Amino acid sequence: MEENKKRCFVMMPFSDGKEYPEGHFKKVYEQIITPAVVEAGYVPYRVDEDKICDSIINKIFEGIQNCEMSICDLSGNNPNVLYELGLRQAYDKPVVLIKDEKTKRVFDISGINTVPY
Q1: pTM of this prediction?
Q2: Nearest 5°: CA angle at 48, between 47 and 51?
Q3: Helix (H) or strand (E) holding 35
């Protein structure tokens, strides 16, 4: 990671699940999220890419609390992603919501602007 760049914590499903083709979320991360985050002047930070030996929950809490920006992919209504979003909102930290067109909106966050892809 470049030391002078701010980090953007990426909350998204890691596995595709049965409703998505293999490699779907990998493509979303590489072709949509990463270019947008970099263009905005941030370095994307995803806990599954962090190779430091530490528990994943510690990495999640650190990213949620300390990253300057965050992006959250609501596609598939993944419960882990929704949990991370709730934590991020509890800390009153900025987050950009995105989702695919086939995922239905979650009622509790339906009033927050979400960018479709």
Answers
A1: 0.90
A2: 90
A3: helix 34-39
